[in-house]
Amino acid sequence: MQELTHYIDGARVNGTSGRFADVYNPATGEVQAKVPLANAAELDHAVQIAAKAQPAWAATNPQRRARVMMKFVALLHRDMDKLAEALSREHGKTLPDAAGDVQRGLEVVEYCIGAPELLKGEFTDGAGPGIDMYSMRQPLGVSAGITPFNFPAMIPMWMFAPAIVCGNAFILKPSERDPSVPLMLAELLEEAGLPKGILQVVNGDKDAVDAILDHDVIQSVGFVGSTPIAEYIYGRGCSNGKRVQCFGGAKNHMIIMPDADMDQAADALIGAGYGAAGERCMAISVAVPVGDATADALIEKLKPRIDALKVGPYTAGKDVDYGPVVTAAAKANILKLIESGVEQGADLVVDGRDFSLQGYEDGFFVGPHLFDRVTKDMDIYQKEIFGPVLSVVRAKDYEEALGLAMDHEMGNGTAIYTRDGDAARDFANRVNVGMIGINVPIPVPLAYHTFGGWKKSVFGDLNQHGPDAFRFYTRTKTVTSRWPSGIKEGGEFNFKPMD
After folding, report:
1. Domain range for 219
2. Per-residue confidence at 498, pLDDT binned at 50, 70, 90?
3. Which one of the listed residues 112, 166, 246, 281 is annotated catalytic?
4. pLDDT digits (tens, 9 = 90+) for 52-78
5. Potential cystine with 451: which of 102, 112, 313, 464 (Cβ 3.0-4.6 Å)?
């Protein structure tokens, strides 16, 4: 069995804690590797190396740092297939979906090539008599990121690419469920020219997380995961004086207006609801058709599309629609929530509970499910299922549909399907959700905009990637400069009034 490692000081190194976690093949249910779980001493060792390496990297001019990112982009393209296959093997995603995971991270790296422009400060000439003022963006020092299993390539790159190009060193604590791709990314970055010690990958569980949150050298922490853990990390990190951004759970609604193109809406829901087995924080898990006629038409369009979905391992070909969920525990939780929906009175239109794949009976596959007539009090509506389950909540009118998205405690993303520009504009302006799609089902912004939800989907005041990332990973220093001219008769202890 393969034994994975950490990545410290430019090399793969074995763990020393004596603790390991199993890494599964989700398609077969078999353990395919074990990953070391770092203790506080191992984490501290990585941080000390990072802190020693960081000043020289910060002193490297932004253009040279950007060139490392240019080379990294080229290497990501070169190794795209290799990265996607490794990702699929541990996560269970289809190969096209895995390649998309890498691609959306790569796009943030491309944005970071603009660091020389994005790191420019401000200057005021003649702010006072003989006085100039200017500001500088300077790196924090050592930053850290705690990333989830569902995007083991994209989200680490969303964090470490801007942090590093800003001049910081970075400690990455990836998910212990699929840790291979982050290790590969670290190797590629150093092949691109990144100095040793600037990116460290430390595998671990809660012990490593707490060590990150309590370490006085680490200046900032980014996190993506569930809302309860996001709250915990935000509270503990902030109490230790760190800059923290945490992104939590989601319950994303898609409103379907009576004038919407039903085929377009149904196709969008299939991809957004069942793609990646629903293991996306931007998945659409709630469809809200306006009016019973709209709901009936939507169900009629959805059912045959769901019945035609091909579920299987990534090795079955590129026509597989989605693969297994990541662990047996995840599968059990999804099925438990499905049972609660039945017990609480929702109409299970498509029942995938008996799904089984010949030859992969021990895999973590979950068949597609479609619920109709779901109500706000049901567990399947309130909780993030993170599985291939779509709930239809019928609304009598637009205001009720809008209210559903606004009243839910999560506010990550939402969408509306309509041909009415006035309805779309009103929805975008009024809904209290961070990312909005208008005839777009998964409104993940491109790399040069920022990603972030509202309400209990986010903790912190700056979003991921885009301009906010450069604000998060730098401090602003403002300098007031005065160079005396002419003959001075002595010290002055007051500001001269401006003429």
Report:
1. 2-248+457-479
2. low
3. 281
4. 999 999 999 999 999 999 999 999 999
5. 464
